[in-house]
Write a structure and sequence with these properties.
The protein is mainly alpha-helical. The protein has a domain at 41-73. It contains two helices and no strands.
Length: 98
């Protein structure tokens, strides 16, 4: 039994180790700053890619819409020209007295 008590005392012994980790902490802080800067750069690239993709997609999607607008402008312009021409003919046939 005494042997068991001695074995228990041996197991409970503490060892104090003093290690200078300041260099490792500086390295970890530097690594963290670099990782943060890299993450920010990736976010900017992602935003630029998203913006460019959106602009390109909007341009592709807007082309048919722009073509319809162009056609409608031409049609309305032609209709207006016809109406103006018809009014001119009507006025030229009539004599206007002031």
């Amino acid at each position: 039994m005494a042997a068991m008590r001695e074995l228990g005392k041996l197991r409970r012994q503490r060892v104090k180790v003093d290690v200078d980790v300041s260099g490792a902490l500086k390295g970890l802080k530097t690594l963290r700053r670099e990782a943060d800067a890299t993450l920010k750069a990736f976010e900017r690239v992602r935003d630029i890619k998203y913006t460019a993709t959106t602009v390109i997609q909007d341009a592709v999607d807007s082309e048919p819409f722009a073509e319809r607008i162009r056609k409608e402008i031409v049609e309305r312009s032609n209709a207006l020209k016809e109406r103006i021409g018809a009014k001119r003919q009507c006025l030229s046939k009539q004599q206007i007295f002031f």
